[in-house]
Amino acid sequence: MGDAGGTAGTAPGGAAGGEAGGEGAAAQELAAALLPRIPEMAAETVARLTADIPAYRLLPDSVLGGDLVANTEAVLNLFFTTVAEGRAPTEAELAAPVAWGAERARDGVPLEAVLRVYPLGARRAWELAAAGPDPVADPYALVTGLLAFLGEVMPKVAEAYLREQADLDWEQREHGRNLAGVLLAGRPARRAAERYGRTLAERYEVVVLRLPEAPGGATNRILRALRSELDGNPEVLATFKGEGGVLLVPLAPLAPPGPDGATRRLLARLDTAAELRCTAAAAVAEDHGSIPRAQAEASEVLSLAEDLGRPPGLYRLADLAVEYQLVQPGPARDALARVLAPLDDQPHLIATLREFIAAGYRRAEAAEALTVHRNTLTYRLGRIRLLTGHDATDPTGARHLAAALTAHAAAHRTGP
């Protein structure tokens, strides 16, 4: 790749073949005169960074007083050297500044803050040039070289930073996925966490998540949005497969989950990121060994919520305790499931019963959900009464049919 900022051999000041004109010679003379002041300029630039940008104040002193100052000196030295020599910087010379930009990504410094050092250093260089004691030197001749240098180095630094940030995000995501897999399998994970530089919580709420149905390739977009949101919550361990996933959300010691808990807030942010509401179920694991059991419970609650046609949202066992008990295998469940056996060859009647119950036994809403006339709904409810012996419009019959519907769905999902 050729030198940017002009063709090879073109000076930043605009003269070709290394022979600078009057302005180019003035720029070279001025740059050479400022080379001894580079340590002063670098220290001032870093001091301005730490004063103006909070992200730099979070860096350790060894980085601020060591690497950052040294890197700034090297960049300023490269700029003034290339201007003094009437040429553009080479790819090899730019390799170090580009690598330093990537290092700042690992330090957690935002890209805006990383790039800010360049205009600040350029501004200080301009101030010194404008205040130079030599009346012959024209400080404005420095502008062309200054802009050409910034135009060459800043895009490359930004590209390297973003590439490193993407690698870090992927790395952190893989660490979280691996740790989640180890914990969900019931295996010890502390050594793996130490290897990854992660700290595990003592207690987790295990969340089994189902992505909303989306047309075409929208599912991939939703997954990307969820992963991007979770990247900002590295303490949450996550693993996705197909159209679902499992999240391990840290819980504070002895803090019970509640309607305003961390899990509900996290899922609200995920819904916002996905632009659709997800369905999820959660169960608390009091220690790492109970995580597989909590996942099994949450998975069963999620399947139950879906079988019952519950709207998207977060469910726990307490929300569906009665229904959960009904679906446990045994003679009571089998007896209830047999109540709807006469409807097995008429799925439209089972769908009618499900929508009627979901609508709170309100005929108008159920008919609208089924896109049928109210008279058609009334006829179907009559057929259900004749075939099952229970009336869905009677409180006692309605309770029995609702329980039978839950047991029927569970029996067909899990088998006898």
Question: What is the strand and helix layout of this fold?
Answer:
Elements: H1 22-34, H2 38-52, H3 54-57, H4 61-84, H5 91-106, H6 111-130, H7 142-184, H8 190-196, E1 203-210, H9 218-231, E2 237-241, E3 244-251, H10 262-274, E4 279-285, H11 291-307, E5 313-316, H12 321-326, H13 331-339, H14 347-358, H15 363-370, H16 374-388, H17 395-414
Parallel strand pairs: 4-5
Antiparallel strand pairs: 1-3, 1-4, 2-3
Helix pairs in contact: 1-4, 2-4, 2-6, 5-7, 6-7, 9-10, 13-17, 14-15, 14-16, 14-17, 15-16
Listing every helix as H and every strand as E from the N terminus to the C terminus, the arrangement reads HHHHHHHHEHEEHEHEHHHHHH
Rg? 33 Å
Largest sheet, spatial ordering of strands: 2-3-1-4-5
Q: Which stretches are low in confidence, meaning pLDDT under 50 for 5 or more residues running?
A: 1-21
| Portion in beta strands | 5-15%
Query: Could you give a short account of the major beta sheet?
Result: 5 strands, mixed
Please count the beta strands (DSSP E, at least 2 residues each): 5
* Shape verdict: elongated
Mean pLDDT comes to: 79
SS-based class: alpha+beta
Number of helices: 17
Amount of helix: 55-70%
Q: First CA to last CA: what distance? A: 69 Å
